[in-house]
Amino acid sequence: MHTRTTTAVVAAVLLLATLTACGSETTDGEPGGPATLSEEQLAEAREATGLPDTTPEQEAAFVAALDSIDKDIAHGEAEKAVSRGRSQCQTIHNWPDDEEKQVDQARQRFTSPKHPEGRAQTTAARINAAALAHLCPDF
């Protein structure tokens, strides 16, 4: 529920920013074009939703950490693994005091062809720790 509320708030803020900018004028009095958010605004929106702003180095370290646990976790799909890791950070952000929920979400989130039902709790706990260490250390 908390995730949906936070996501809805961020979506409303982004929509409001877009609508406000669409009605703006350029310096010569002409109507403005479509609004674009600054990097700072995007970072604030990501922070509010718990989605970290990651660097390629952080992402590579995360995938390497997953591979050190079990190469089947990323199973050669680094971008997909990073996307799932960022979603895991959102879970960590939204339930900071509920490690059991965090691990359960990692267990379900990191499926693969060899593990379509999800991961064991111990593996999921290591995935959760890797996400926290490499993608969202500030959480």
UniProtKB/TrEMBL annotation:
> Pfam families from the xrefs?
DUF732
Region entry Disordered, spans:
24-56
Entry keywords, A to Z? Signal
Signal peptide range:
1-23
InterPro entries reported in the protein's UniProt record: DUF732
Chain ranges of the DUF732 domain? 59-138
**Can you say what this protein is called?**
DUF732 domain-containing protein
- Origin organism of this chain? Streptomyces salyersiae
